Amino acid sequence: MSTSLSKDLEHLRTLAEDSANPGRYGQHFHLMPPVGWLNDPNGLCQFNDVYHAFFQYSPFNAEGGVKMWGHSVSDDLIKWDYVGTPLYPDQPFDVSGVYSGCAYVEDGVMNVFYTGNVKKLDAAGYDYVCTGREANTIRTSSKDGINFEHRHVVMGNEDYPADDTEHVRDPKVWRDGDTYYMVQGARRTDDRGEVLVFKSDDMERWTLLNRITTEYPFGYMWECPDYFRLPDLGDGNLTKVLSVSPQGLTGGDWDRRNVYQSGYFVLRGDPTAEYRLQPFALWDAGFDFYAPQTFQADDGRRILIGWMGMPDEKTYTNPTVEDGWQHCFTIPREVSVRYGRVLQWPVREIEGYRANLREAGHSLFVEGSPTFDLEIDDMPEHMSFVYVKLADEFAITWGSGVLELRFLDDSKDGVGAGRHVRYEHLARLENMRIVGDMSSVEVFVNNGELTFSTRYYPKKYKAVVDAPGAHIQFWDLNV
Ligand code: FRU
Fold first, then answer.
1. Closest by alpha carbon to 16, among 85, 100, 98?
2. How far apart are CA 166 and CA 177, in angstroms?
3. Which of 142, 228, 327, 442 yields a CA-CA distance of 20 to 30 A from 463?
4. What is the mean pLDDT of the chain?
5. Collapsed DSSP state (helix, strand, coil) of residue 341
6. For 215, what's the count of Cα atoms within 13 Å in the CB-facing half-sphere?
7. What is the pLDDT of residues 387-404, one digit of tens each?
8. C-alpha 200 – ligand 1 centre gap (Å)
């Protein structure tokens, strides 16, 4: 049912999109907004053979504004077509934003759950943490994947634990046997992040089963939780993965990393009862990565997509704001587990777009190829360094046990638009893969054990590779 508010929003959104022009840094194969701002991936699924990706969308302001769900579809996870904006913040229960959520497909129906954000008018001195907010859990469904009906509240503040703040959000639903489960991210009143686990028999009435957190304080808020199981390709054991995006990690190595983090805990035991969390591991150690979500494709693959952006980051920017848009998603990644290690690798479909192979065994120089796939493998046993330089200013190096991304000019006019350095310790380099689009670079190391994502803004597209004795392959990606 459309309201006069949603009709006006629809009209204004179309006007904004019609006059959009992404400019020179428009991405070729990374999902980006038609205009304005994009953040989290939402409602990822495969439905009637088509991949659906919804996204947190603010079409009217490239620096963020009221959130709705934009919608893109794809046959191969590489070429995305924007098809519209099915969910506007036009109801009393979501009027301050159609926040993040998921899609759960069953019996030809796409069930969508999201957080209806309500911020009350600041007449009573609200702090918007413990007071002044509603975090409504909304359900809606679609039979064609395009039109959504019967949008309604299934849980509200009163259904969450009393010692949680009003920051509870980002439902993710799955089914096990006859029971549906949902995780949501939350901030407790003692400023600790946690995951709430609910169950339901009918996706309508939900009851709280469990609260998952670390044994020690680990950030004040955990956003965008996800939970999935994967068979270990090495030893056959089932691995349970709890993914979260914690905010408020400080001290030690956290101080040189991003403002907020996204990572996972391997979970032992039962997420609905007794559990133990293994050490937290980052999904991605680059400059731009947050709020990833996964889904299972019909062929069984677990696919992860992250937001290639970083909220509340003040030191670096994205010059695309001048072109009226900001942010994009990562390339979809196949997630697997081998001998306890969680690996991420670009979906295999991208290889179908490779063309014009250039190969070398020592060093390589390529100019004028903005969209590319670079693989460095078959490392000699005593490999001591690898050096890659992109766009004259962006060095990706491994040596002395450190994998580093460094923008040589860290000013806002540089290729990194203010980004400077990110690194992680890595004793042994087995292989490296770098996927480049017009304004992004994603680095996959050791079969995807470690990844780094970043936006960049080249003046000239160039690649210099030095990897003595290794096998270097460089393809253009013609998407
Ligand atoms: C994560 C997040 C979510 C929220 C959404 C709002 O980036 O803050 O927790 O639902 O973005 O856009």
1. 85
2. 31
3. 327
4. 97
5. strand
6. 6
7. 999 999 999 999 999 999
8. 24
Q: How confident is the model at residue 337 (pLDDT cuts 50, 70, 90)?
A: very high
Strands 221-231 and 207-212: unpaired
Nearest alpha carbon to residue 325 among 62, 19, 27 = 62
What are the phi and psi torsion angles at 165 (to 5°)?
-75, -170
Q: Are 266 and 239 in contact (CB under 8 A)?
A: yes
Is 410 noted as a catalytic residue in this protein? no
Count CB-CB contacts under 10 A for residue 240: 17
Q: Token pair for residue 400? A: 């002395």
* Cα distance from N-terminal residue to C-terminal residue, the chain: 38
Nearest by Cα to 388 from 377, 379, 376, 400:
376
Question: pLDDT of 14-46, one tens digit each?
Answer: 999 999 999 999 999 999 999 999 999 999 999
**HSE value, Cβ hemisphere, 13 Å, CA-based, for 368:** 1
Say if ligand 1 is within 6 A of residue 56 CB.
yes
Rounded Cα gap, residues 113 and 121, in angstroms: 25
**What value does the mean pLDDT take over residues 169-178?**
97
Q: How far is the CA of 296 from the centre of ligand 1 (A)?
A: 22
Identify whether the C-beta of residue 56 lies closer than 8 Å to the C-beta of residue 69.
yes
Beta carbons of 171 and 183 less than 8 angstroms apart = yes
Query: Is the Cβ atom of 94 under 6 angstroms away from ligand 1?
Result: no
> Does the CB atom of residue 180 touch ligand 1 within 6 A?
no
Å from CA of 51 to ligand 1 middle = 22
139 touches ligand 1 (CB under 6 Å): no
Query: Whose CA is closest to atom 8 on ligand 1?
Result: 223
For residue 373, the surrounding DSSP H or E stretch is strand 372-377
Q: Which tokens sit at 417?
A: 């638009």
Q: Count helices and strands (H / E) in the chain.
A: 1, 35
Residue 219's closest CA among 193, 239, 198?
193
Say if residues 209 and 140 touch (Cβ distance below 8 Å): no
What is the distance, to the nearest Å, from the Cα of residue 172 to the centroid of all Cα atoms in its chain?
A: 14
Picking from 240, 259, 237, the residue whose alpha carbon sits closest to that of residue 248 is 259
Tally Cβ neighbours within 10 Å of residue 404. Answer: 16
Q: How far apart are CA 228 and CA 175, in angstroms?
A: 11
The whole model's pTM is what? 0.98
Distance of CA 464 to the CA centre of its chain: 29
Torsion of CA 314, 256, 38, 185, to 10 degrees: -120
Distance CA 189, CA 209 (A): 19
Nearest alpha carbon to residue 248 among 182, 202, 311: 311
